[in-house]
Amino acid sequence: MRFLLPSLLLTAAVSPAADPKESDYYPIQNVPNPANLVLEVGAITHTPEGRVFAATRRGDVFEIQHPFAPDIAQAKLSLFASGLHECLGLAWNKDSLYVTQRPEVTRLVDENHDGRADLFETVSDAWGISGDYHEYAFGSEFDRDGNLWLTLCLTGSFSSATDYRGWALRVTPDGKTLPSVSGVRSPGGIGFNALGDAFYTDNQGPWNGSSSLKWLKPGSFAGHPGGNDWFKLTQEIGPRPPDPNDNSRMVKERERLPTLVPPVVMLPHSRVGQGPTAIECDTTNGKFGPFHHQLFVSDQCYSNITRVSLEKVNGVYQGVAIPFLEGFSSGIIGMSLTPDGTLFAGGSDRGWGSRGGKPYNLDRLRWSGKTPFEILDMKAAPDGFTLTFTAPLNPSTAANPASYAMEAWTWAYRADYGGPEVDQVLPTISSAQVSPDGLSVKLTVSPLTKGHVHYLKSPGIRSSQGLPLLHQDAYYTLNEIPSA
After folding, report:
1. What pLDDT score was predicted for residue 484?
2. How far does the chain reach from its first CA to its final CA, in angstroms?
3. Which residue of 4, 160, 216, 448 is 20 to 30 Å from 363, comparing CA positions?
4. C-alpha to C-alpha distance for 277 and 297, rounded to whole angstroms
5. Class of domain 26-366
6. What's the rounded Cα separation, in Å, for the pair 308 and 267?
7. Looking at the predicted structure, is the pLDDT value of residue 8 above 70?
8. For 280-303, what is each residue's pLDDT tens digit?
């Protein structure tokens, strides 16, 4: 079921030639690769001193020389390490680069300061590998307590053939490995919000009707039972949760399984993307634009980035996903946002292909200084949603309920791979109240459906300057309805 927009809104649209473009605000620049190195980037990180490193799926680590040069043509790649195995995590601490590769976390040190790693030291190898292609290992930056987080893909999509496949682990500063979260399926990246809580992206598949952003709450169950047999190896968390009922609903299984944490934000398959990967939080204090403390989630298949804003309701994370930027030349796997507001992104089209069209990429982007007219945030209310915007609104368009349309749905929580949108609802937007400062709107919506994605489209909205929204779509995952 899809909603139909009133024809009067379509005729009121600004002509395409007058519409702003994403590149007006965030132009993408390609880091030069004159040697045609195979840069299937799997992870990127930066140091406090401004060094930037990119690791590849093929096991190389490069340092980007002059990464912040005004002219991107001045940036150059220098080999820092090689001989590793499928690097999908990078983090810097003191004088060391920590690489998460398929079999272990490795500490790299350039002891003689010649620009190449000399020391390769195993930090943790507390999980198994079988040779199955699907057994990826993703690593995070260091968290607020000095821990490195790891998410381990299942063996294939359905099962776990080796230790802790389908889990998230933490490696402590003293080298101890702590099993922390079960129920992981096929992660694509790990990151933290501004409060320091850990999140990961999980991809559509068994027990995952669509891809999503999930909270790595220590001791919780993320939803896929395939790796739960490894509770027999740990006393850190437990007991093993009961298996979910097949072809149920997440909201119903949460009532039965106390450790089950629902996806924080669903990333609707074939609408937002088809393979979410890295997570970066904007802590640049305005140097990357108006999206302070929001998350940026990349996608390997769609070669794009989605913006996510979170809130906690009744102790559960939920929030909204809004398109941010597309047009990268390959599928993004790794990202790093530096304190000066420079985002580095790179990846590959291997395996699943990507919209970008090139086999690999390493790109840089910065905010142009122009503020796009966007939905800045969307928050749940007991009887609807409150929208805030990046610029003042035209009050006549914003106060008209016909400027908006909404539909809602969920997915079956089932053992089969993925699945269609189900349990569709068409909520009614009965009123739209504009705030005195013209920067927010309270939408009264009925019904609100717990556990559903509420998809808002706002084609009739205009700014006080007459601009349409750069992105009209917003997808809010309503895990909890706030109390009055």
Report:
1. 81
2. 30
3. 216
4. 7
5. mainly beta
6. 10
7. no
8. 999 999 999 999 999 999 999 999
Nearest CA-CA partner of 33 in 80, 77, 79, 78: 77
**pLDDT-derived band at 18, boundaries 50, 70, 90:** low
* Contact of 365 with 324, CB cutoff 8 Å: no
Task: Name the segment(s) of the chain with CATH classification 2.60.40.1220.
Answer: 374-477
Strand arrangement of the beta sheet that strand 177-182 belongs to: 137-142, 148-152, 167-171, 177-182
Q: How far apart are CA 481 and CA 477, in angstroms?
A: 10
Residues making up the chain, counted from first to last: 484
Tell me, what's the pLDDT at 337? 98
Distances (CA, A) of 310 to 166, 387, 388, 430, 455: 25, 13, 14, 25, 16
Domain 374-477 in CATH 3.40.1170.60: no
Q: In what order do the strands lie in the sheet with 405-411?
A: 276-281, 295-299, 304-313, 316-326, 473-477, 453-457, 405-411, 421-425
Query: What integer is the mean pLDDT of 39-63?
Result: 97
Q: Which residue is listed with tokens 């027999």?
A: 232
Please determine, for residue 239, whether its predicted confidence score (pLDDT) is greater than 50.
yes
Q: List where CATH 2.120.10.30 sits in the chain.
A: 26-366
Asked if residue 472 has pLDDT above 60, the reply is yes
- Give the pLDDT confidence score for residue 236 in this predicted structure: 86
Residue 349: strand pairing partners: none
Rg (CA), the chain: 22
